[in-house]
Amino acid sequence: MGNRTIGLAVAESLQVWRGKVQGLSTEELVTWAWQTFGSRVALASSLGLEDQVLTDMVSRLTPQMAVFTLDTGRLFPETYDLLHRTRTHYGLDIRVFFPDARDLEEVVSSFGPNLFRESVALRKRCCHVRKVLPLRRALAGLGAWICGLRKEQSSAREDIQTVEWDEANSLVKINPLADWTEAEVWAYIREHGVPYNALHDKGFPSIGCACCTRAVQPGEDCRAGRWWWEAPDKKECGLHWRDGKLVSR
Ligand code: SF4
Known about the structure:
By secondary structure, this protein is α/β, with parallel strands linked by helices. The protein has a single domain, classed as HUPs (Rossmann fold). It is built from seven helices and eight strands; from the N terminus they run ααβαβαβααβββαββ. The strands form two sheets. The protein has a six-stranded mixed sheet with strand order 3-2-1-4-6-5. Strands 7-8 form a two-stranded antiparallel sheet. A hairpin with a 4-residue loop joins β5 (163-166) and β6 (171-174). The longest helix is centred in the middle third of the chain and has 20 residues, at 120-139. The protein is globular and about 50 Å long. The site of iron/sulfur cluster has 13 residues, from α6.
């Protein structure tokens, strides 16, 4: 994002941090994040492949760092299995944030459990209650968060930077895997024996809520299995903003 919308002090800090992280390896970057922000930085994991790579690094390099995930209440059984396996494998207390029960009662009572199929607006409302609001609670009090976004994942992510300002949540966002390719992610997973979602071996490159994710056919875009009934430009869940626009996840 441009520096015009952020305070001068933040812009100056960003410049300094970007200078410091230039040339660092991904592992060094994770360590730098901990040394710079201490207990005010956390890894946000969706339990996707990239986040599993980062969880592996955090467990080895900065095991004191908080790791959290969001349970929307509509995840695949395989995803819950992975959460359990990851906690056991690394001995990490991965904190789980849930939707607010009253918010959920209100939205489901008003529009039904499958409101996301009714309209894009209702789908976004479901994502807001089940993902965006819990994320806000998870980020409260933090100075920075770490994500597994990669430039290669979509055109909307082409210009992500390793260290950037998250305007929507008013904190620093660190993307240690920004320059990684999908092949590099898989190579790391295999080399380090990182636990991953069994659905990845069944045609699911991108995994979200069970009711909003399907397998893709060979050659299909990796995002084709998410909210497949919507036009591609509507596919976002409100978790990631870039230059004032939502980026799908
Ligand atoms: Fe709701 Fe689907 Fe969004 Fe999950 S992905 S929060 S079920 S609309």
